[in-house]
Structure formats: C-alpha cells, structure tokens
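User: For a reading group we're discussing how well predicted structures match intuition. Take Putative L,D-transpeptidase YkuD. Before you show the prediction, I'll give you the sequence so everyone sees exactly what went in.
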Amino acid sequence: MADKLMRAHGSYITINLATRRLGFHEGGRLVNTYPVGVGKPSTPTPTGSYSVREKIMYPGGALGTRWMGLSVPGGNYGIHGTNNPPSIGGYVSNGCIRMYNQDVEELFPRVMIGTAVEISAGTVQSKTESLTGAAQGGQRKHIVQAGESLWEIAQKYGKSLESLITVNLIANPDVIYPGQVLIIPA
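Assistant: Thanks. Here is the predicted 3D structure of Putative L,D-transpeptidase YkuD, as structure tokens, for the group to look at:
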C-alpha cells in the first residue's frame, strides 16, 4: 500500500495506532516519525486510506496551532496540534490524531492537499515475543477487538488478569486498543 501511495503523491503519511506513531515518507524514504495521541477506545481513530483535504493555521483551542483535515467519510477527523501536550502518546482523543505543536508545525509545510494518509491498527509486540520472535511454550496470540477489555480477554482464555498484564508488560490495564496483539500465557 505504501508504494502505491508514494507513487500517487510523492509523499505520504502513515499512522500506527498501536504504537501511536506518525511517519512522514517522502521520495521513497521515511523522513521522520512523531509520537501522537489517538482515539480512545470509545471513540477510536478510523483505520483506512485517506488523504489530507484541508489545512488550517491557528485553528485555536484544543486543536493547537495547525489542523490538517482528513477525507474520512461521515466524520470530521484530522491531524492537529494540541493544547494538552501530556496527552501525546495516549488513547485520548475523539478520533483525531494529536501531535505536539512543534511537531505539527514542522510537518505542516511539507504536507500538501491530497497527501495520502494510511491509518492502521498496527501491532505491539510484547517484550517476550520480540526477544523470541514468537509466542513461547504453547502461548497463543489474541488480537484485541473493538469493545474488548483486558478482563474479558483473561476470562475468555481462563487466565488471570495479572498474568496477562505481566506477560504483555501492560502499564495500564484499562488501555488496550483494537488490533493490539496480546500473548496469552500457557
């Protein structure tokens, strides 16, 4: 998909919801990545292929210093700055992609109307999985679905909540995201 986007526009943006990172690609290479805040589980950021349809400097308020509206059907979603910098890196928005104001100000002049934006659920590997390349000793993987809680997943597999938290190095058990890959201990 990325090659197709690059050929169509010369530059494109990728957003990985699991890692909460935005990548800006230009001329066949990744130019920079930025930490972002994305939609909370109750109002998730929509995945899919979109484009930048409008750009506004100084939109004000919670939108920070820049706004780049996306072509998401039936919604008003965008990439924008924030007046709440501690929210960057979290699942916090009503579906928009938040950036630090200095980062969105750096990106803004490089993005043209029509620039392709690919938003994916992505995956987050646990430390155990990344060290071994796979689940160990009979462990299974579970891909989080919209609306699931960690407690429900633990119940589904007959595991304790604590074991899921430990194996997956989860800092906040109330924050899991659709598309996130969890290791289910043996």
